[in-house]
Amino acid sequence: MSKRILVTGGTGFIGSHTTVELQNAGYEVVIVDNLSNSEAKVADAIQQITGKKTAFEHVDCTDFSAMDHVFKKHDPIDAIIHFAASKAVGESVQKPLLYYRNNLVSLMNLLELMKKYTCQNIVFSSSCTVYGQPDTLPVTEQAPTKKAESPYGNTKQICEEILQDTCNAESWLQVVALRYFNPIGAHPTTLIGELPNGVPANLIPFITQTAIGIREQLSIFGNDYNTPDGSCIRDYINVVDLAKAHVVALNRMFENKKKSNYEFFNIGTGRGLSVLEIVDIFEKVSGVKPNYKIVSRRAGDIEKVWADTTLANNELGWKAEETVEDTLLSAWKWELKLQKEREKKQ
Ligand code: UFG
Predict the structure, then answer these.
(1) Close Cβ partners of 341 (under 8 Å, ≥ 6 residues apart)
(2) Using CA atoms, how far apart are residues 108 and 62, in angstroms rounded to an integer?
(3) What residue's CA is closest to ligand 1, atom 27?
């Protein structure tokens, strides 16, 4: 019998791509999502890609009794991948309590229900935000965590601590935290991709929306950083590569290959690219030059960060495969598809 995986936030950007990879790998998936930042039709698109049935529960993870019902209905759940969380850095500064409640209560509910229903395994969506500005690059998992720049970042740090403390207290619990760098791109079928809510806060959707004409101009936040071209450097990871990291993390759990009950890995490409380099590469692959201007720095931005992925390479046997060129092209094809849908609606 195939193992059943509960994917919270499964209609979101990373959750939907991960559901596809899980189903392709033979796992059965139950999605839980409150649709606060996604759409129910994503579950249909996933089904269209994989040809497999996707159970979908429209439930909020902070609602304990509704989640209890989901666990009862789909018992046994063999593992959880927990994506469901609020993720907008700027909004978290405006609404800290919303972020603390949503992100912390969801995780605590899951951990309590895992005990009640004897589900041992959870993969947690963490972030390179836990490192702040690292002292040395590329950053390894041994680097100290730094005080978070935002309530959102703080929730990721606190969730990691909650998981670590619970692992110390409960030896049955198996956790893998994946520290994502900057996920970008879309599925090659263009059936799923990123659906930003309103004005995109992230670089790639802002670039594609500018290139297609929805936004007038991309603002590049600063060209006076201590980097070769003065703009910030990030490690941009293809979302399908990132999705595959979840599958190998689960396999490792089910094959009892973990070295301790709490493990954490960097999931990036190991390559840092500046904002200006990304804009250049985008122009090369799409043939469209996004209109941009340099503006002042954005508060809270890290100057430069990219991953040392040695641990994920060696322990998970995982490495990023897609080129940034193909990844940016996939993001562009996704935007072109969304544009066609927008035009049809008019
Ligand atoms: N940027 C621009 N203009 C924009 C948007 C972004 O110049 O309109 C720049 C940013 O200044 C930054 C880079 O593009 O240098 C990437 O910015 P994103 O907002 O796309 O991503 P961040 O690195 O700021 O944020 C990501 C995740 C967060 C996570 C954070 C940790 O989106 O969830 O990494 O550092 F918390």
Answers:
(1) none
(2) 9
(3) 182
Note down pLDDT in tens along the chain; length 346 residues: 799 999 999 999 999 999 999 999 999 999 999 999 999 999 999 999 999 989 999 999 999 999 999 999 999 999 999 999 999 998 999 999 999 999 999 999 999 999 999 999 999 999 999 999 999 999 999 999 999 989 999 999 999 999 999 999 999 999 999 999 999 999 999 999 999 989 999 999 999 999 999 999 999 999 999 999 999 999 999 999 999 999 999 999 999 999 999 999 999 999 999 999 999 999 999 999 999 999 999 988 999 999 999 999 999 999 999 999 999 999 999 999 999 999 998 8
The CB density around residue 325, as the number of other CB atoms within 10 Å, is 12
Q: Is 169 exposed, middle or buried (0-12, 13-18, 19+ CB in 10 A)?
A: exposed
Pocket test for ligand 1, best of 91, 214, 298 (most atoms within 8 A of CB): 298
Cα→Cα distances 165→33, 119, 153, 185, 248, Å: 26, 17, 19, 34, 24
DSSP H helices, 126-221, are 151-169, 203-212
Q: Can you give the pTM of this predicted structure? A: 0.98
**Which residues line the pocket of ligand 1, CB cutoff 6 A?**
87, 89, 127-129, 152-153, 182, 201-203, 206, 218-221, 232, 234, 275, 298, 301-302
Ligand 1, atom 31, lies closest to the CA of: 129
55-77 as b/e: b if 16+ CB within 10 A = bbbebbbbeeebbeebbeebeeb
* Residue entry with tokens 């992230």: 202
